[in-house]
Amino acid sequence: MPHGLNPAQHAAVTTLSGPLLVLAGAGSGKTRVVTYRIAELIKNGTPPARILAVTFTNKAAAEMQQRAAALLGKGRKEKPEISTFHSLCVRILRRHARVLGYPPQFSIYDRGDQESVARASLREIKVADDQLRPGDLVNQISRWKMQSVRPEQAASLAHTDKEHLAAMAYRRYQKSLKQAGAVDFDDLLLCTEELFQHFADVRQAEAGRFAHLLVDEYQDTNGSQYRIVKALAGGHRNLCVVGDDDQSIYGWRGAEVSHILQFKQDWPEAKVVRLEENYRSTEAILTLANRLIKYNKNRHDKVLRPARGGGEKPRILQCQDEEAEAKQVIEDIRSRLTDGTCEPRDFAILFRTNEQPRAFESELRQAKLPYVLVGGMSFYDRKEVRDVLSYLKLLVSPSDEVALRRIINTPARGIGQRAVGALIDEAVSKSKPMWEILAHAGQLPTMPPAAAEAIARFRHMLEQFRQRLAVESIVEVVSGLISHLGFQDEIARTYKEPLEQQARWAAIEEVVNMLGAYQKRNKKPTLGGFLDDIALGDRNDEDDKENQLKRNAIALMTLHSAKGLEFPQVYLVGLEEGLLPHRRSVEIEGAAIDEERRLCYVGITRAQDRLTISLALSRLRWGKSKPTKPSRFLFEITGQAETARNQTPKPGAGAPPKRAKPPSTPHVGTRQPTRKPAAGPPTTPPRRPSRG
DNA sequence: TTAGTGACACTTTTT
DNA sequence: GTGTCACTAA
After folding, report:
1. pLDDT tens by residue, A2-40
2. CB under 8 A, 24+ apart: contacts of A138-143
3. I want to staple A163 with a disulfide (CB 3.0 to 4.6 A). Which of A84, A91, A158, A191 is the partner?
């Protein structure tokens, strides 16, 4: 038995053929089991390239790759294929895009691109922002796609006014995407599913590449993913899925826990292994976690058994406002660091929403502590980065309309609103991609002559660079393009602050650096490949690893990004009603709250040695301080839920009648940093830590 | 007609 | 803090 696995883990590692369901609780050594299993398969003669492991996030994939490589030794040429669902689908679709009517170099639209298309679609059908916001439309479309609802079917499923509008917009949206030769993230799955469904030969070819399939975080699979897994594993039936229904936190993306609960029905001969021993957290932390998750009704009743007894009792920090919260948390970390028992990388600050880290970041900067903000895609959301990337997208895929519209006049080159309007009108009426209209823009009656010339120059310029791509290296072409466009001057002109200029130009240079790194590590680098990696967040290059994982820094991330990770010292911040649980879930009630509870559970179970929970008594919203209510989860984990229920008046279906409050008293008088609040949970005194 | 400035509202979670 | 809209100067 390898390396001291317990009997359940051993069974999971050595059951090598046929379907296998591993119900793995938090901290039960799941990742270890999975990598050992891959090693075991190879030891038993399976060629590594015949093994496919699918994960949900890039982080999980990267970690699994790393662990597998460490276990198998470096010298191996052949590696098991370990990737996320989405990158797997991209690779499949790039091979077969034509049969679905897409160009092989199709663009992948991210959230920002999706919203652009959504905005344009809504404008076309004359829907105002206050009737249906582009962001909400994107969410609704995503929900439909997760349920494999086609644009034509959406109308019949719509109930509310908003849904009807969304159904109309969905048609336009999908038409625009198709015309732009682009797919969104949901399409990646949907198209793969469709491909397998309609083209049996393709399915067989793709499924036949692998003899073993492994799916991590199976509780998070949505309908499409579920069917793709079935299609891939249906032949050999060597399917191992690993998951935990208590950690299902992607219901809002169409994930269905039923997939993991019904596994035995789909694969009747399946073996089931339960990993219920928790090696990660101390007993004190697990007690809290178990107490919380019990409040969820629809779940497999199970209790994680702690392997590490005792432990420091989790503390609850109650702070005046978000600034005080950040200050106290950082001060706590700082004192831990100076006494020499911990390193920065031992700490994680976990939060619900992406607006929360701001206060913590500024405190960390002031304290001069190293930190990494994980996941906040901020770099790729920078205006200049998106601009540069749009040029690259347009070089690869001329039909990419979102990219074209973004940069047709950036930097300004005399193609104004009127000119663009004329192009769009022509494109719509001829239903041709806008790129094709550019060629004869001068002949359009409503086209201003000056703009027509600018368009001709613009088109010619891009054609030139596209041709250079065939003979020169991608870094050369892109550097040439950036200097030709005069981005540096443009930045100097538009931003006054020298520091800001530097930062913005540095971002553009960083894109070129990343391109260089990509070119270096790939045998046949292409611009399209680079863009795929970026779109999928699949940048597992050395640079990134060194910057992010190896660097000894405090980690800041959302609860969603924290899944699958562990840290000795965890700070779970912002436990307030409206934040965790989030107000959008509070409005829906029911299942949404259960998911928030699981989210909280995931946060708690990330902690190995020490857990600190914090909340602010007031929080800035729209620049004004507003009082907050402690999260219901706090009452639940401290065993005060019943008391709380009696104390909080329940004013029917979600009416916040607190309008009467004068907006003039934002400062709260008394300080009571670590004392029990009127209706709040108690602060628990620290106990002597005892290591397992 | 286009470029530049200022006011405005918007902020769940992710591939 | 950022993208969009409306307004003004060229």
Report:
1. 567 888 899 889 888 899 999 998 889 888 899 999 999
2. A138/A111, A138/A114, A140/A166, A140/A170, A141/A114, A141/A166, A141/A169, A141/A170, A141/A173, A141/A186, A142/A184, A142/A185, A142/A186, A142/A253, A142/A254, A143/A254
3. A158
Q: Of all protein residues, which has its CA closest to the C1' atom of C2?
A: A383
* Distance between CA atoms of residues A636 and A650, nearest Å: 17
Q: Report the alpha-carbon distance of residue A20 to residue A28 in Å, rounded.
A: 17
**Is residue A661's pLDDT more than 60?**
no
CA of A414 to C1' of C6 (A): 20
Mean of per-residue pLDDT scores for chain A: 83
The pTM assigned to this predicted structure is 0.84
pLDDT given for residue A361 in this prediction: 86
Q: What is the pLDDT of residues A291-302, one digit of tens each?
A: 999 898 878 778
Question: Does the structure show a pLDDT above 50 at A648?
Answer: no
Transcribe A634-692 into DSSP letters. Answer: HHHHTT-HHHHHHHS---TTT---GGGS-TT--S-----TTS--TTSPPPPPP------
Q: Is the CB of A355 under 7 A from strand B?
A: yes
Taking the CA of residue A623 and the C1' sugar atom of nucleotide B8, their distance in angstroms comes to 15
Distance of alpha carbon A601 from alpha carbon A581, whole angstroms: 12
Q: What is the pLDDT of residue A64?
A: 87
Cβ of residue A145 lies below 7 Å from strand B: no
The first and second tokens of residue A505, run together, are 């130009």
Q: What residues have CB less than 8 Å from A286, skipping those under 6 apart?
A: A278, A304, A306, A605
Candidate list A55, A114, A247, A558, residue with the active-site label: A247
* Residue A297 appears among annotated catalytic residues: no
CB–CB of A491/A384 below 8 Å? Answer: yes
Contact A391, A427 (CB under 8 A): no
CB distance A52 to A80 below 8 Å: yes
Find tokens 């590594």 and name the residue. A48
User: Residue A688: what pLDDT?
Assistant: 30
- What count of Cα atoms within 13 Å lies in the side-chain half-sphere of residue A269? 8
Judge whether A606 counts as a catalytic residue: yes
Q: Closest nt to A253 (CA→C1')?
A: B14
Nucleic strand B under 7 Å from the C-beta of A192: no
More confident residue, A677 or A522: A522
A372 vs A204, residue with greater confidence: A204
Return chain A residues 112..141 having CB < 7 Å to nucleic acid strand B: 129-130, 133, 135-136, 139
Cβ atoms A214, A430 nearer than 8 A: no
Is the shortest CB-to-strand distance from A56 to strand B under 7 Å? yes
Nearest in space to A90 (alpha carbons), one of A65, A108, A103, A110? A108
Residue A402's nearest CA partner among A188, A173, A138 is A173
Say if residue A295 is exposed, middle or buried (CB neighbours under 10 Å; 0-12, 13-18, 19+). Answer: middle
Contact A630, A577 (CB under 8 A): yes
